[in-house]
Amino acid sequence: MSEVVRRVRPGGGLSRPRGGSRTSHTAPRPLGIALLPVAILGLFFLYPLALVVQQSFQPDSGGTSFQAYSDVFASELFRTALWTTVWIAVVSTVGCLVLGFVLALIIAFVPFPGAKAVARFIDVYLSFPSFLITLALLFIYGTTGIVGSFQFLATPWGVLLAEITYFTPFVMRPLLAAFSQLDTAQLEAASSLGARAPRIIRQVILPEALPALAAGGSLVLVLCLNEFGIVLFTGAKGVTTLPMLVYSKAILESDYPGACVVAVVNVLISVGLYGFYRVVSRRVGA
Questions:
Q1: pLDDT for 37-62, tens place per residue?
Q2: CB within 8 Å of 151: residues ≥ 6 apart
Q3: What percent of the chain has pLDDT over 70?
Q4: Which of 7, 59, 175, 248 is the most exposed place for a label (fewest CB within 10 A)?
């Protein structure tokens, strides 16, 4: 056993050994680091959102009341807008899932020149604004478009076409990532056993693609519920969604409490669906 050498001071005390370790208090605190982004988030997002919620409880007559909620929920226009928002979002999501799955299959498993370029273009396409796609469709289905005499784009079906066209790549991106990790030996084994393409897709590819479909579909559903630019640019008659109703009440009618009520309902639906999307994404690792 080694001995501890102590140095005796002239006054009889013990001197501290040289090179002794001292406790350091310079480690940053995680709470202090998180304060800045939380403050920025609260200032630029949570505070305006809190003002919207507060305004929804303050009628024009003053005070605090649930009257705005009662008026909006009793309105036939609100119920129609809610139903229109839901069915357009659901049908658009289903269309994106079907079309995205077929296109992703072709890009991933059907060899053709430029397949990699197309896959890379999808990443760029995700950055395009929604009104740009709608503007392109106006040149085809608009009043002065190639087939403008049918007035197709000014109907709910035109809104569906525009949303499916724009949001399909949001489904294709996670599908292509899932297909790139698929073991090709399974496909070769199934093919060598005599399985045809539809059976291979149904029994081998589709089970592997289901998590990516769930993640992409839930994201598209959230985006479709909040889509404003496509509905506005198509000029579809009789198509009033919740975002369009917020715009109408706030800008056209100057009914700010009513607009805030509709906005709060839209936010609650979107947050709930986004929470579902995050749960699905976490489970599939998307």
A1: 777 777 777 778 888 888 888 876 66
A2: 141, 143
A3: 81
A4: 7
Q: CA-CA distances (angstroms) from residue 200 to 105, 111, 115, 189?
A: 12, 17, 21, 10
118 neighbors 107 (Cβ within 8 angstroms): yes
At how many degrees (to 10) do helices 76-109 and 115-125 cross?
160
The amino acid occupying position 238 is: G
Burial of residue 29 (CB within 10 Å: 0-12, 13-18, 19+) is exposed
| CB neighbourhood size of 92 (10 A) | 27
Put residue 237 in one of left, alpha, beta given phi > 0 → left and psi -120 to 50 → alpha: beta
Residue 195's SS3 state is coil
Whether pTM exceeds 0.90? no
Tokens linked to 126: 């995700």
